Each structure stands twice: as structure tokens, then as C-alpha cells.
Amino acid sequence: MVLEAAVNGRADAIVTFNHNHFRNAPGQFGIQLWKPSEALRKLKMMTN
Predict the structure, then answer these.
(1) pLDDT 10s digits, 12-26
(2) Of 8, 24, 31, 47, which is the most buried if we count CB atoms within 10 A?
(3) CA distances from 10 to 17, 29, 31 (A)
(4) CB-based contacts of 31: which residues, under 8 Å, 6+ apart?
(5) Distance separating alpha carbons of residues 30 and 47, to the nearest angstrom
(6) How far apart are the C-alpha atoms of 3 and 22, rounded to whole Å?
(7) 41 against 47, higher pLDDT
(8) pLDDT (mean) for 20-43
């Protein structure tokens, strides 16, 4: 359901601790898979 919502919502990324749950599926739809710490780092870079 999360992947489907991300695809339908045209998300750039899914933020999750559980990368094993998604495996390679997000990449097939052009969606990146980020850990929360990575997402925070990217958001900080965007605001600076």
C-alpha cells in the first residue's frame, strides 16, 4: 500500500527503516528509498 500510494502521489522517495520490505520495487517506479537520517540530511541541505 505504501508503494502504491507513493507511485500514485508521484513521490520522489519513501522514508523507512524497513528497506528489506521494499527490496527493489521502488526503483522500478523511479522512487528512491531513504532511511530517516538520510531524509533529514537531504532536507537540511535543501533549506540551506
Answers:
(1) 999 999 999 888 888
(2) 31
(3) 21, 9, 8
(4) 3, 6, 7, 11, 12, 13, 14
(5) 24
(6) 8
(7) 41
(8) 92
d(C-alpha 21, C-alpha 44), whole Å: 27
Domain edges within the chain:
2-47
Closest CA to 31 of 44, 48, 19, 45: 19
Task: Please give the grid coordinates belonging to residue 19.
Answer: 528497506
Are 28 and 46 in contact, with CB atoms under 8 Å apart?
no
Assigned C-alpha cell, 42? 537531504
Q: What integer pLDDT is reported at residue 14 of this predicted model? A: 95
